[in-house]
Amino acid sequence: MQNDKFWLKIIYILSVVISLAVAFLILGPRPQGVEGMVDVSRLPLVNSVLNTITTILLISAFIAIKRKNIELHKKINLAAFGTSAMFLVTYIIYHWFKAGPKAYVGDYATIYFIILISHIVLAAIILPLALITLYRGWQSQIDKHRKIAKITFPLWIYVSVTGVIIYWMLY
Questions:
Q1: What is the pLDDT of residue 102?
Q2: Structural domain of residue 93, as residue ranges?
Q3: Which CATH number do you get for residue 49?
Q4: 100: left (phi over 0), alpha (psi -120 to 50) or beta
Q5: Total domains, the chain
Q6: Coil, strand or helix: which one is 1?
Q7: Are 63 and 78 spatial neighbours (Cβ–Cβ below 8 Å)?
């Protein structure tokens, strides 16, 4: 139990630090000359592909656990976390070398902003949820893992799918 408190504290601190760093990197000032220094024009497509792969992996992990294949479930979920982590890295790189978020210019602004705002809020929430869910599974705390996974799974799917939808709407 004491070990749980330690790791949960680490997860929460890490989640807050990453969320604040992402917000700063997207919205904060950049050093002179950084914008455009690296061609990041393909990264939105890469991010969309990573979100698609994450969605497929999450659904595959769900199917694996329903079939009682625990080892495959673990491996697939680690892969899903890995693709989400790669997304986060490429997302940060993109926004560091490109000034600010891309403006939406389509005909469905209200729908776009509802999707975008819910995506952003839930993306910040999913980080600690995914880490706690993985931690609980790793520690074989099956009851606690199942309980939080029932929240994490649909939110993570939502964040991954809406990431792709946002890409389609912007590009």
A1: 79
A2: 2-170
A3: 1.20.120.80
A4: left
A5: 1
A6: coil
A7: no
